[in-house]
Request: fold
Amino acid sequence: MSDHPGKISRRTFMRGTATVAAGVAVIGAPTEAGAQDLAPSRFSSSVTVRFEINGVDHVLDVEPRTTLLDAVRERLQLTGTKKGCNRGECGACTVLMDDRRVNSCLILAASTDGRKITTIEGLADGPVLHPVQQAFIDHDAFQCGFCTSGQIMSAVGCIAEGHAGSNAEIREWMSGNLCRCSAYPQIAAAVEAAAGEIV
Amino acid sequence: MSNLGEPVPRSDGKIKVNGSARFAADQSLPGQLHAVFVSSTIPAGRVANIDTGLALGLPGVVRVLVAGDLPPLHADFNETMVPPLATKSIPMQSDEILHEGQPIAIVLAETLEAAEAGARAVRATYAPAPYINPEAAAPDAVDPERGGYSYLDASEFLKGDPEAAMTSAAHVVQAEYAQPTRHANPMEPSAILASWSGDNLTVYDSVQHLPAVQANLAATFGLERAAVRVISPHTGGGFGVKGYVWPHELLAAMAARVMRRPVKLVLTRRDMYGMVGTQPRVTQEIRLGADSTGKLVSMTHVVSNVTGLTEDYIEFATVPSRSFYACDNISNLQLVRRGNMTLPTYMRSPAEGPGSWALGSAMDELARAVGMDPIDLRLASYAEVDPVSGDPWSSKKLREAYALGSERFGWRSRPAGGTLDGHWRIGCGMADCSQGVTRFGSTVRVLLKADGTARFESSLCDVGQGPATIFAQVVGEILGLSPDRVHAVTGDTNLPPAGPTYGSATTISTGTALHQAATAVRDRLARLCGWPVAEIAMRGGSIVRGTESRTIEAVLSEAGVSELSGDGALEIENYADAGLPGFPARSFGAIFVEVGVDPELGLLRLRRATGAYSVGRILNARTARSQMIGGIVWGWGQAAMEASHFEPSLGRWHAKDLANVVLPVNADIPPEIDIAFVDEFDPNAGPLGVRSVGTMAATGVAAAVANAVYDAIGIRVRELPITPDKLVQG
Reply:
């Protein structure tokens, strides 16, 4: 970790995402006071995080403001995770954190120390697709494919949560993932089929 | 045995489910800078001053480009056409501001985070000018001098004497219908990575038509086309707003030119509301006159849409009233309302999308006035020929589609309107779906290799409709190969230029060229064998003549040929047309919906839908079905959810995100979306017998929903979307 005087300790971040997010909101405020917060010292700090991503341990120095999404895409070049809105509204960036689905655009990378992250690149077992991935092909559950990584990761989480008991339940619990090509009935059918296979 | 029509799985399935399909924003180059726009917070005026000092002091920020820093547009740019250039009004060529959200500065930084922080730290001051709210502007005649959109269809149409015929009509209905501006919001925001090598420019871009980007970037800098390479193997949804070339693409290339480094620009979701087009707010006045039997005797249709100040974008919503029904007396007029807004654009579904909403609603009002079933009303004015030209259609099996859809939906035995299911009142409605065929000039190359595989090469971009999959089927069909032995090489302007992936034109356009190219390869193979082309067939990787059969591998190997190639082209005068000359071509269909309305809470739910279509031959039942389902969901969004509201005092959109602009989600769409196609081969549309599919799917749906709402609770909603405030009773 940098010794720069403006650094924010890892302990601060370990208090939880909500605290950190509140800090970022101040930085981003479009006021003159907010602009002053952009003083260089503030951003030259970095945080070292150690996390497991797709079964591989990583040590990464990240800026406190860097999201998990930007860290995996721009730093680790794991570009299967997509940025559709960067505000937690579309679900395209869904990954698993400690086996639970999260919007990676709403997670600061600095808060992921000690966590286990799974992205779409880590889902298949070598050449063998995960049952949800295969079900998405079999049920034609995508067109352009841009939301698909997030849909699939969300579906894996949805099934693990026990929210895939019926088509109606799946549709409700998969509604955080937008698909503008609108393959919704096929997505629900794919999740339903995969849930049957996984259980 | 034919593979055409079979539900062959998508050829890009695996790379779409394992995250390895690389979209524009997934690309990176060594030394690249991240670009983030600073955009105008006022809708009209000019930039007085931009203070970049604070931004430049942030670590990682390399440069803040303002208007004077960018190269001027080359003289060649004056020769470009609008469209396919979306607008000639390119930001940052002066300090003028024409709409809120217009880029006024570009922050370039070593990291995305630094660029974002830099953009927040730029301080702009403005000299505001009075702005014009387009929604409040008076409708004005279309000006053909303002861009080229007016040349894409007719702004005025007159047939017979509609006024006289209206006075003699037994039944007349008259109403005004409105729909709000809607943003396409493809899941992938537009993105571009621009890189120069000397005077050669390469861009990874998120587009629906690569050659248009190539041509316009070349003109921007005064380059030969060949000096610009556009790469776009995957595009994350377009729905029209990536169809034309938008200013941010030029600005990214300019920034890379100035910086002498690659520049990666990924629009934010907010940028998608200011830097690419929308479907504009459309208001429509319709009058329908019918005789005592319900036959249409007169139709008048006046449409006005909002547009920007620099070009007249025209939403040709009058098209349905001159093409859906037989009628001797028709008048159409298109008007525009100009104001300070981002220029609108063609968006799913243009023209017939808005037009079918108004006309499909008016026909339902007429059916109730006459006392006829809406299908019978339509059959009374069935257009056997194109009402504009009087020529017979290339093929039209709408009667069969009515029968098929009606049967599958149970239209004739539907529950009475207002039937209760718990607290829901049930209603059913139907409307016509239709979209004119468009063909674009297109080229493609097919190569047959000595290992018995084939590939086709074309600049075409598969935005998810599935052309790469169905074209492998077509090549496989002609060369006797399983589709999985045919590989698509696409998405690069170094390949033979294809027409755009919009307007449902890809299959009929590039597919026709592909048919020609694959046939040329087959004929060459026959000649290598010394067999007459007319006597051979291709089956199972072999060429067959009577009882003789030779494998492709054997023929090429013995001839010492590593691969055979064939070129195909669909050549069209003036770049685009509406089908084979002399054969007006249009896809047809009918949509049936059942809704539930809770009149106490104003809730509206889709319970089930059936679409039955006459579209020519279906090449892949799976991808075609997906197109239709997607279109119906878009229609549901148009009907019940989507709107971008213009804030009149600030001159900007109320919301520029995905939380406050409501879009359909999975829970909104029931599994009971039933799709059926009439068995059809259109011999007058081209060698494949196809017309067009996907764009039509979003037409008619909004009208069917509004008609179903009326059926359920007796409220006629004439302004979309049909939100609870319009349904709550007493």
User: Anything to note?
Assistant: Chain B is about 25% helix and 25% strand. Chain B has three domains: 24-130+187-237+242-273, 348-436+582-726, 439-577.
